[in-house]
Amino acid sequence: MKKICTIAVLLVMGGCSHDNIITGPELSPVGEGIVVNRQPLPVSFVEPEPKTFQSLWSGNKQVLFTDRKARQVGDVITVNIQINDKAQFDNQSDRSRDSKSDLSFGGFLGFGGFNVEKESGEGSGGLNVASKTSTKGEGSIDRSEKLRLSIAALVTEELPNGNLMISGSQEVKVNNEVRVLNIAGIVRLSDISTDNSVSYDKIAEARISYGGRGRISDMQQPAWGQRIYDKVVPF
């Protein structure tokens, strides 16, 4: 009885480990998605040009009076995401194999399975081996994705060659469902437009994720017990 109670308590705790059932999922703290885990890039260091302090012109400005582009760590840049992808694949495979082998032999003193002549004591035998295998597979993929969003990202790092590492996160909570948009990547200064925005296809090493968490998302996927069962059972 004690073991049954322990198992029941563990199941209840596992079910309550997710977002609050009554109030729904909570929003993440501001700044949580800024830090990006990445491997160091093999970028060569470029020696910066010496600054002329007697001049009113700054070498890191493209316009004399205004500079609206993000350039330093902490600056904000707008990322425009317009994904309209369509993929269609149709694969078929057919493989078959048929083999047959015949073997006959004779000898003195027959053994089990041989034909033995009683008068001479000589025996003869034969062996037939046949195998046949076939494999046939067919698969198709038809996928269409559309996504049009804009998100403000922060410059988190300036690489030695002048490129900018950006990271941004956006969360919207509607009816106990949180929609989450994350983006990270590397941007060149020349790809940033005059309105301080950049298109998603200009971002190198882009990592874009759009999903959600909440009651609707929970209903769209199997329970955690079923997921564990699917991982453990190989059949």
From TrEMBL:
Highest taxon listed in the record's lineage: Bacteria
Any Gene Ontology CC annotation: bacterial-type flagellum basal body, distal rod, L ring
PROSITE patterns in alphabetical order: PROKAR_LIPOPROTEIN (PS51257)
One of the record's GO molecular function terms: cytoskeletal motor activity
A Pfam entry, by short name: FlgH
Location in or out of the cell: Cell outer membrane; Bacterial flagellum basal body
InterPro entries: Flag_Lring
Lipoprotein found in the keyword field: yes
Topology of this chain in the membrane: Lipid-anchor
Region (Disordered): 120-139
Keywords in alphabetical order: Bacterial flagellum, Cell outer membrane, Cell projection, Cilium, Flagellum, Lipoprotein, Membrane, Signal
Principal subcellular localization: membrane
GO BP term, pick one: bacterial-type flagellum-dependent cell motility
Subunit annotation: The basal body constitutes a major portion of the flagellar organelle and consists of four rings (L,P,S, and M) mounted on a central rod.
UniProt record similarity statement: Belongs to the FlgH family.
Database matches in PANTHER family: FLAGELLAR L-RING PROTEIN
Function, in words: Assembles around the rod to form the L-ring and probably protects the motor/basal body from shearing forces during rotation.
Descriptive protein name: Flagellar L-ring protein
Gene expressing this chain: flgH
